[in-house]
Write a structure and sequence with these properties.
mainly alpha; about 190 residues; 11 helices
């Protein structure tokens, strides 16, 4: 095995371990609540030692809130999947809804934790800003009119923000997607009187 293959295998193993820990934490915390789940229980459910868990995450909060290293590829794939010539509103709507669906398993736990601590909310800002920046670049690349691209982008981001802020975590991710689709439909119709 050459070094590149070994490095690739090692990186895939690290990603699998990272995801195993995250998935175990989300499942346990969703079932019992954040405070009722210990780091040791998360490690055991993921099939790793406590020290291995801390090799990947700095704290129990980080297990839930740290950015997923695979997320950028998720949103980039959603952007690449949009057909050329598709109206910008439709393309951005599809990317946003697809991304919400892809990360939906952890949104209830994250929203609950963010509400309990503004400091925890800060920890996910970097990835959110990266996604926002790439989404804006995507919008600008599809529409030559910079004003149209920026306006559409801002309305899309406000639409998703409205859906997220009005969504109750007790209603589940399907309800968030339903609210988001409704918000997109309303925003897409506009607010000017007929």
């Amino acid at each position: 095995m050459v070094d590149g293959e070994r490095d690739g295998l090692r990186e895939r193993k690290k990603r699998r371990t990272w995801h195993a820990i995250r998935d175990a934490a989300i499942r346990l915390i969703d079932e019992r609540g954040f405070d009722a789940v210990s780091v040791d229980e998360i490690a055991a459910a993921a099939g790793v030692s406590r020290s291995t868990l801390f090799n990947y995450f700095a704290s129990k909060e980080a297990v839930v809130l740290d950015p997923d290293p695979d997320e950028p590829e998720v949103w980039r794939a959603l952007m690449r999947a949009r057909p050329a010539g598709e109206p910008l509103w439709d393309a951005l709507r599809a990317v946003q809804l697809g991304y919400l669906e892809a990360v939906g398993d952890r949104l209830p736990v994250q929203k609950r934790l963010k509400a309990s601590s503004p400091k925890l909310a800060e920890s996910t800002r970097e990835l959110s800003e990266q996604f926002a920046g790439e989404l804006l670049d995507f919008a600008v690349s599809r529409v030559p009119d910079g004003v149209e691209a920026l306006l559409t982008y801002n309305v899309v981001r406000a639409t998703v923000g409205t859906a997220y802020s009005t969504w109750s975590i007790d209603d589940g991710i399907d309800r968030l997607l339903e609210i988001a689709r409704d918000c997109f439909d309303r925003a897409g119709r506009g607010f000017a009187p007929d």
